[in-house]
UniProtKB/TrEMBL annotation, chain A:
Pfam families: Aminotran_1_2 (PF00155)
Name of the protein in question: Aminotransferase class I/classII large domain-containing protein
Catalytic activity as recorded in UniProt: glyoxylate + L-alanine = glycine + pyruvate; glycine + 2-oxoglutarate = glyoxylate + L-glutamate
Top-rank taxon, per record: Eukaryota
Broad class of the protein's primary localization: other
A Gene Ontology cellular-component term: peroxisome
Keyword terms, alphabetized: Aminotransferase, Peroxisome, Pyridoxal phosphate, Transferase
Keyword Transferase: yes
One of the protein's GO biological processes: photorespiration
Locations listed in the record: Peroxisome
InterPro entries for the chain: ALAT1/2-like, Aminotransferase_I/II_large, PyrdxlP-dep_Trfase, PyrdxlP-dep_Trfase_major, PyrdxlP-dep_Trfase_small
Cofactor(s) this protein requires: pyridoxal 5'-phosphate
Lineage of source species: Eukaryota, Viridiplantae, Streptophyta, Embryophyta, Tracheophyta
Aminotransferase class I/classII large domain sequence ranges: 85-459
UniProtKB/TrEMBL annotation, chain B:
Naturally occurring in which organism (per UniProt): Arabidopsis arenosa (Sand rock-cress)
Main EC class the enzyme belongs to: transferase
Chain residue ranges for the region called Disordered: 13-34
UniProt keywords, alphabetically: Aminotransferase, Pyridoxal phosphate, Transferase
SUPFAM superfamilies linked: PLP-dependent transferases
Protein name (database record): alanine transaminase
Lineage summary: Eukaryota, Viridiplantae, Streptophyta, Embryophyta, Tracheophyta
PANTHER family to which the protein is assigned, alphabetical: ALANINE AMINOTRANSFERASE, ALANINE TRANSAMINASE
One of the Pfam families matching this protein, by short name: Aminotran_1_2
Enzyme nomenclature, EC number: 2.6.1.2
Length: 481, 543
């Protein structure tokens, strides 16, 4: 009898081909070890609350009240909820069409989208149209929706940075498109060179690929680099010349750990450039409640803003959004709160600022601690984490280690990371999951473990690494310190 | 003209088949040429805009990468009438109503197009919301005042749930299948419902049932050569997701004359016809209770379906989101898993995916986006692929996961909230049954309208026999006849319903789908307006 429908052989090849290392082999092995009782430090995914970061108080108060609106009728409610949280809950409930339990507009609650537009305008100094802002169940869903529109078939190419967050490679794979890599320069703090871009595009075209879009992740993931204004201008000019739609993944815009290059949105730079660019370049910008100092990954809240996308295309994107009916309403309220947080004078303002600052300042310290820690290790060099939530050290694996990996049937950085996991319980993601130059190996870890635990974690890593390098060493030692 | 009408009516169903006829080869995405004539211009456009940077401003729209002429044709092809044209018209009307109250014979728009109970006044189940609020803001559990505001068992349940979440962190990404402890509870709930065990590892919690359906379609469909058997009429998530994932919809017709019964002989016939055209039929979708049709399958019918899938090597995709919406004493919901296991079929015998949601039932929590699929009867290498797909999105929203576990394990006799919970639940369900009957009777009293009873779900799907004059008037407006009727209905009454063509129907028949969800006090007015409108419509167009 012929193959059954769910036999492995008859599955969609695109599914089989796609990879998502963030929850791949290392994570699964770590989960197994955890079940066996080993203490695991999960640094494989940017998941702050899982590593002890507390949720901000104010948004949780507001959403709890929205969950249980009957509380608002209770005369004692003012005893456990501050008045501004109560007022804000009433405000968001009035914007919904039946509370948290009703499907909203498929693009998201109009009132919340208006708040997002106002936020964007305050941030950039240019008006933003709520009709061109769609809320989504996490930024990832938005990315998938947009790529689904852009990719028609295998001949369509998407420019993606290497290293990249593997949502992009996985989605392009699932949709049957082609990933066109452009390499970031590790020796230039993961800088973006427009010449690399041109080279990648030319090569793709020579293979019959139509390059349709370019992804930038700013601040970068896993690399953390913050793009300079001039870099952004170059990129936008490039997209204009090459007729590419720019997908600006800006989910880490609140995570900036140096002052030389503050965050500037792609939209602001585009508008600053004026005509013809500001009217011609198609841009889609993504943001989320999962990162920043909010870290509300489990809510699944995000949005994308469209710039210079023709109305009929917007309609089609809306149509696809409507099939999923609506994004979850709780997360939409989180998004509203994120873009319009407590203001000076509000009852909850001081607590909110204290909590937020505490998180951001600690992240800044941890970014430094981790970078320095890695740089003190044998054969490890690590660029500074300028932004985002990750450290992406380069591990210069000796040839004996690479041999051992081959014999074990593993990619060299996977081999290293598995050994690291087994020795220390530190669960990372091998650099091969993000892409890297041939023969160069990295791992990605987050800067999220609690600050008190950082020294011990870095010591544990150093001990493992230096022993590993001795075991497999060919007497070559390189350290940046 | 008749050909035009038939084409209009068959549009949804046959579109994918016609595409199939046009494309010469379906071997793999790599070797497949672009299917439709329009694609020839796509290719030339792409060569045009990729080559040069010195384009004139007037050409700029056609050279931009993302225009409607250059986006993924599968996106253009898919349709979703539930939030389609008629809703856009209604929203514009609603805006205008604010400014020009006196211009209309009604004072509000009533949205009967979508199963969205809480937008029409249905209240959430209090116990569920208590637990969710406590989980969202768990420091409440440390406050003494909390005990005056929340029921004892909701506090208890919140503690239990938080203890199952690592670090009690409801803001963290969970396991990609959903929090293990919650899946344990859901599996226990499934077992209590069916009398057969469920494995938490078979459960994938998703942002509503819809993303789970998409995952399965993605897994099963490689090209237009892969087909999915779908009921006609169907909930257009299926037709849309099949189109989006590039597969073929293979229709099987439910029989209106026998209360929307499902005939195995028709299934067989459609299957064989599809296969003879070179389509590999991969799965059978059954919606039980049905949407838009509302029928609850008889157990014997379900056994036939299970046997059919086993014999033909099809995955059974069982959409069971309305499992708690059954309004008639002579029918009962039986899950397909129970039916399959009762027949003695185990993991090695049949591939079955069952979908459940928090959006329907008596809880109606659409905006929470909670749901799951239970996947049984497949090998571990396939399971890995499903897990991988789930992992790319990391996880579904935690609040929705918690709610799914509550729905599958509500308060029990003896629990503090049990009595009030049961009162809320029974109140909602009995009211739905009453509204279903009232609207059904009202529709059946209209000239030329027959309406099967809503045995379950949330909809009525009456058939309207439109006079020839009406059909001609529709054609003159370049609208499908049922859409013409629905637009007239909207303009006269403010009631929004969805034309039957959005769900599929036997060519030459016309229907519309109307929900039973407006609150009871609005029903008489709706019935009156509908009756008046229909009479004047028939007066205008009667042959």
């Amino acid at each position: 009898m012929s193959l059954k429908a769910l036999d492995y052989e008859s599955l969609n090849e695109n599914v089989k081909n796609c990879q998502y290392a963030v929850r791949g082999e290392l994570y699964l092995r770590a989960s197994e070890l955890q079940k066996e009782g080993k203490k695991i430090i999960f640094t494989n995914v940017g998941n702050p609350h899982a590593l002890g970061q507390k949720p901000l108080t104010f948004p949780r108060q507001v959403v709890a009240l929205c969950q249980a609106p009957f509380l608002l009728d209770d005369p004692n409610i003012g005893m456990i909820f501050p008045a501004d949280a109560i007022a804000r809950a009433k405000h968001y409930l009035s914007l919904t069409s039946g509370g948290l339990g009703a499907y909203s507009d498929s693009r998201g609650i109009p009132g919340v989208r208006k708040e997002v537009a106002e936020f964007i305008e305050r941030r950039d100094g240019y008006p933003s149209d709520p009709e061109l802002i769609f809320l989504t169940d996490g930024a990832s869903k938005g990315v998938m929706q947009i790529l689904n529109c852009v990719i028609r078939g295998q001949k369509d190419g998407i420019l993606v940075p290497v290293p990249q967050y593997p949502l992009y490679s996985a989605t392009i794979s699932l949709l049957g498109g082609t990933l066109v890599p452009y390499y970031l320069e590790e020796s230039e703090n993961w800088g973006l060179d427009v010449n690399n871009l041109r080279q990648s595009v030319a090569q793709a075209r020579s293979q019959g690929i139509t390059v349709r879009a370019m992804v930038i992740i700013n601040p970068g993931n896993p690399t953390g680099q913050c793009l300079s204004e001039s870099n952004l201008r170059e990129i936008l000019r490039f997209c204009c010349d090459e007729r590419l739609v720019l997908l600006g993944d800006e989910v880490y815009q609140q995570n900036i750990y140096q002052d030389e290059r503050p965050f500037i949105s792609s939209k602001k730079v585009l508008m600053d450039m004026g005509a013809p660019f500001s009217k011609e370049v198609q841009l889609i910008s993504f943001h989320t409640v999962s990162k920043g100092y909010w870290g509300e990954c489990g809510q699944r809240g995000g949005y994308f803003e469209m710039t210079n996308i023709p109305p009929r295309t917007v309609e089609e994107i809306y149509k696809v959004a409507s099939i999923a009916l609506s994004p979850n309403v709780s997360a939409q309220i989180f998004m509203g709160l994120m873009v319009s947080p407590p203001k000076p004078g509000d009852i909850s303002y001081d607590q909110f600022i204290r909590e937020s600052k505490g998180i951001l300042e600690s992240l800044r310290r941890r970014a430094r601690m981790m970078t320095d820690g890695f740089n003190s290790c044998k054969n490890v060099v690590c660029n500074f984490t300028e932004g985002a939530m990750y450290s992406f050290p380069q591990i210069k694996l000796p040839s004996k280690a690479i041999q051992a990996a081959k014999q074990a049937g593993k990619v060299p950085d996977v081999f290293y990371c598995l050994k690291l996991l087994e020795a220390t319980g530190i669960s990372t993601v091998p650099g091969s999951g993000f892409g890297q130059k041939e023969g160069v190996f990295h791992l990605r870890t987050t800067i999220l473990p609690a600050e008190e635990e950082m020294p011990e974690i870095m010591d544990s890593f150093k001990k493992f690494n230096d022993e590993f390098m001795s075991q497999y060493g060919d007497n070559f030692v390189y350290s940046r310190m | 003209m008749r050909r035009f009408l038939i084409n209009q009516a068959k549009g949804l169903v046959d579109h994918s088949r016609r595409q199939h006829h046009k494309s010469p080869s379906f071997l793999s995405p790599q070797s497949r040429p672009l299917a439709s004539p329009a694609s020839a211009s796509l290719v030339s456009l792409s060569r045009f805009f990729s080559s040069t940077s010195d384009m004139s401003a007037s050409d700029s729209t056609s050279s931009l990468p993302v225009t409607v002429d250059s986006i993924n044709p599968k996106v253009l092809k898919c349709e979703y009438a539930v939030r389609g044209e008629i809703v856009n018209i209604a929203q514009k009307l609603q805006e205008d109503l604010k400014a020009n109250k006196d211009a209309y014979p009604f004072d509000e728009i009533i949205y009967c197009n979508i199963g969205n109970p809480q937008s029409l006044g249905q209240l959430p189940i209090r116990f569920f919301r208590e637990v969710l609020a406590l989980c969202d803001h768990s420091s409440l559990l440390d406050e003494s005042e909390t005990h005056g505001l929340f029921s004892i068992d909701s506090i208890d349940r919140a503690w239990k749930i938080l203890d199952q979440i690592p670090g009690r962190a409801t803001g963290a990404y969970s396991h990609s299948q959903g929090i293990k402890g919650l899946r344990d509870v859901i599996a226990a709930g499934i077992e209590a419902r069916d009398g057969f065990p469920a494995d938490p590892n078979d459960i994938f919690l998703t942002d509503g049932a819809s993303p789970a359906v998409h995952m399965m379609m993605q897994l099963l469909l490689s090209s237009e050569k892969d087909g999915i058997l779908c009921p006609i009429p169907q909930y257009p998530l299926y037709s849309a997701s099949i189109a989006l994932h590039g597969g073929s919809l293979v229709p099987y017709y439910l029989d209106e004359a026998t209360g929307w019964g499902l005939e195995i002989s028709d299934l067989k016939k459609q299957l064989e016809e599809a296969r003879s055209k070179g389509i590999a039929v991969r799965a059978l979708v059954v919606i039980n209770p049905g949407n838009p049709t509302g029928q609850v399958l008889a157990e014997e019918n379900q056994r036939d379906i299970v046997n059919f899938c086993k014999q033909e090597g099809l995955v059974l995709l069982a959409d069971e989101v309305y499992q708690e919406n059954v309004y008639v004493p002579d029918k009962k919901f039986h899950s397909f898993k129970k039916v399959a296991r009762s027949l003695g079929y185990g993991e090695k015998d049949i591939s079955l995916v069952s979908f459940q949601s928090v959006s329907k039932g008596y809880y109606g929590e659409c905006g929470k986006r909670g749901g799951y699929m239970e996947v049984t009867g497949f090998t571990s290498d396939v399971r890995e692929q499903i897990y991988k797909m789930a992992s790319v999105n990391l996880c579904s929203n935690i609040s929705g996961q918690i709610l799914a576990s509550l729905v599958m394990s509500p308060p029990k006799p003896g629990d503090d909230s049990y009595d009030s919970y049961m009162a809320e639940r029974d109140g909602i369900l009995s009211s739905m049954a009453k509204r279903a009957k009232t609207l059904e009777d009202a529709l059946n009293s209209l000239e030329g309208v027959t309406c099967n009873r809503a045995e379950g779900a949330m909809y009525l799907f009456p058939r309207i026999s439109l006079p020839q004059k009406a059909i001609e008037a529709a054609e003159a407006e370049k609208t499908a006849p049922d859409a013409f009727y629905c637009k007239r209905l909207l303009n006269a009454t403010g009631v929004v319903v969805v034309p039957g063509s959005g769900f599929g129907q036997v060519p030459g028949t016309w229907h519309f789908r109307c929900t039973i969800l407006p609150q009871e006090d609005k029903i008489p007015a709706i019935v009156n307006r509908l009756t008046e409108f229909h009479k004047s419509f028939m007066d205008e167009f009667r042959d």
